[in-house]
Design a protein that fits this description.
- With 308 residues, the protein is α/β, with parallel strands linked by helices.
- The protein has 2 domains: 3-88 and 276-294, Rossmann fold; 89-268, NAD(P)-binding Rossmann-like Domain (Rossmann fold, 3-Layer(aba) Sandwich).
- 31% of the residues lie in helices and 17% in strands.
- The protein has helices spanning 15-23, 35-38, 70-73, 89-107, 110-118, 142-153, 180-185, 206-209, 229-238, 278-294, and strands at 3-7, 28-31, 42-45, 61-64, 83-84, 134-138, 157-162, 172-175, 189-192, 216-220, 241-246, 266-268.
- The relative contact order is 0.14.
Length: 308
């Protein structure tokens, strides 16, 4: 039977131990940096420490516990073995729910109403039709496409940007670096659902965010590294940006003394937009473990060049 190493924050993946034992009778499970983990054939990861995977001579498969693998590929010493990710329809539904809520948070002025409530201020704002709010989706993968369709169904004016050309009925699409500024200039509520790759790190900086119309809002559900947070704060304080819902950060958990917690106009959420259950994660990891042992094709293999 296969041996498995769990690489991540201490205790994070402990719920998987009993589930793996149930799905893979006879499996050996160890947490990094226990000695047994170094001899594992399957590494299950979330933000493994740099160099850890390269120190596993028997490694045959790396498996992320999430849809994203940027936290693994950021280590350039990762061995050239198959890398798989989690694909869960429940994550897509959950992400769309979060995007819908965050869009309505700005569209229906909940950000302003909540702020007024703290001051005991009764004030109503002019109600706008959904068609008068232009929502722009950055990233047209499975998550972005589903969110775009649902927003369109609610009547919002939806556009989307992707690296390569894509078409979605009823949605104005932009593609390529040359079209990014035009896309941003027509977006009142920006939703980032991009994968994190070398080309998207720091993509949303002051120069690009300034292309958004004055009073625009930002919803970040992708990765914290996509945004230069200091630039977001500066644009909020200047009045160019109205607000931001931030669910992901370069450092997680976000330290309690980080200024983002107390920045007016910013709502911090604890990377909660879409979370796969340990049951779902374990079932997919165990399935790929059996496929590896049986010499069958693996599921949800990552293209390392594309980063997803």
């Amino acid at each position: 039977m296969i041996s498995v190493a769990l690489l991540g924050r201490p205790g994070l993946m402990d719920p998987m131990k009993a589930l793996l034992a149930r799905e893979l009778p006879g499996v050996t499970v160890a947490s990094w940096p226990e000695p047994a983990a170094r001899d594992a054939e399957l590494a299950v990861c979330w933000k493994p420490e740099p160099g850890a995977l390269a120190a596993m001579p028997k490694l045959q498969l790396i498996h992320s516990i999430a849809a994203g693998v940027d936290n693994i590929l950021s280590d350039y010493s990762v061995p050239d073995v198959p890398l798989c990710r989690i694909v869960d329809p429940g994550i897509t539904a959950a992400m769309t729910e979060f995007v819908l809520w965050a869009t309505l948070y700005f569209h229906r002025d909940f950000d302003r109403v909540i702020r007024n409530a703290r001051d005991g201020l009764w004030r109503r704002y002019d109600q706008r039709a959904a068609k008068d709010s232009r929502v722009g989706i950055l990233g047209l993968g499975e998550l972005g496409s589903d969110a775009a369709r649902r927003l369109l169904g609610l009547g919002f004016a939806v556009s989307a940007w992707s690296r390569s050309p894509k078409q979605l009925a009823g949605i104005r699409t932009f593609s390529g670096a040359d079209a990014l500024d035009a896309f941003l200039s027509e977006t009142d509520i920006l939703v980032s659902l991009l994968p994190l790759t070398p080309s998207t790190v720091g993509l949303l900086n002051a120069a690009r965010l300034s292309r958004l119309p004055k009073g625009a809002a930002v919803i970040l559900c992708s990765r914290g590294e996509h945004v230069v947070m200091e630039d977001v704060i500066a644009l909020l304080r200047s009045g160019h940006l109205r607000g931001a819902v931030l669910d992901v950060f370069g450092q997680e958990p976000l330290p309690s003394d980080d200024p983002l917690w107390r920045e007016p106009g910013v709502l911090v959420t604890p990377h909660m937009a879409a979370i796969a259950s340990w049951e779902t994660i374990t079932l997919q990891v165990a399935d790929n473990a059996r496929r590896l042992l049986g010499g069958r094709p693996l599921l949800n293999v990552v293209d390392r060049v594309r980063g997803y």
